[in-house]
Design brief:
The complex is a heterodimer.
Chain A: E1 9-13, E2 18-23, E3 32-38, E4 45-50, E5 55-56, E6 61-64, E7 70-75, E8 84-91, E9 106-111
Parallel strand pairs in A: 1-9
Antiparallel strand pairs in A: 2-7, 3-4, 3-8, 5-6, 6-7, 8-9
Chain B: E1 4-7, E2 10-13, E3 19-25, E4 32-38, E5 45-51, E6 57-58, E7 67-73, E8 76-81, E9 90-97, E10 106-108, E11 112-116
Parallel strand pairs in B: 2-11
Antiparallel strand pairs in B: 1-3, 3-8, 4-5, 4-9, 5-6, 7-8, 9-10, 9-11
The chains are: A mainly beta, B mainly beta.
Chain lengths: 112, 117
């Protein structure tokens, strides 16, 4: 599986935007970029995913670099409930490629 | 939205006993379910992939005779930790792939905290 690199931790002030970076320089043309987050003592929660174009949903935005070697998850206004570990994961686009390989992720702390 | 439940949410058992953990997709059918293990302050590690009606596929280093997986229906998969020992204490999480697909294809359960004394 292609590997992703994320900062170990980040801090944000409450109600400010947060930009969580992810490098994936070995991404292949069919790899989807997925973001999940895990709150303490809970299972991971889907946040967003994309292939080439930027994506928006009610939780976040995903900005994908033109060469697809990096992406940024954007939380528009961080709240205390957004404090979690955020995982950037590449998933193959082939049939049957549904496994998700979790790295260490970025632990986001939100300061009131 | 699609919901995956796990039962029990936590369990404490004595060394040498077996523990069964259930994973259910409540409002969708799941042909594929995944089992993960997460030790404190570490990331999730995939243990096995379970397909309905067939044998599970285990990741390298995971003992299939110790971690028995049964996926008997499109909504239920079970993980049995046989002859549990303290080193098996961990957070076990399942996920289920929605047969109908959609923007998010995998949904995770809330996890089961296993403590082996």
């Amino acid at each position: 599986d292609a590997k992703t690199t994320q900062p170990n931790s980040m801090e944000s002030n409450e109600e400010e935007p947060v930009h969580l970076p992810c490098n994936h320089s070995t991404i292949s043309g069919t790899d989807y970029i997925h973001w999940y987050r895990q709150l303490p003592s809970q299972g991971p929660e889907y946040v967003i995913h994309g292939l080439t174009s930027n994506v928006n949903n009610r939780m976040a935005s995903l900005a994908i670099a033109e060469d697809r070697k990096s992406s940024t998850l954007i939380l528009h206004r961080a709240t205390l409930r957004d404090a979690a570990v955020y995982y950037c994961i590449l998933r193959g686009g082939g049939a049957g490629s549904y496994q998700l390989t979790f790295g260490k992720g970025t632990k986001l702390s939100v300061i009131p | 939205g699609a919901v995956v439940s796990q039962h029990p949410s936590w369990v404490i058992c004595k060394s040498g006993t077996s523990v069964k953990i259930e994973c259910r997709s409540l409002d969708f059918q799941a042909t594929t379910m995944f089992w993960y293990r997460q030790f404190p302050k570490q990331s999730l590690m995939l243990m096995a992939t379970s397909n309905e009606g067939s044998k599970a596929t285990y990741e390298q280093g995971v003992e299939k005779d110790k971690f028995l997986i049964n996926h008997a229906s499109l909504t239920l998969s079970t993980l049995t930790v046989t002859s549990a020992h303290p080193e098996d204490s961990s957070f076990y999480i399942c996920s289920a792939r929605n047969l109908a697909g959609g923007p998010n294809e995998q949904f995770f359960g809330p996890g089961t905290r296993l403590t082996v004394l």
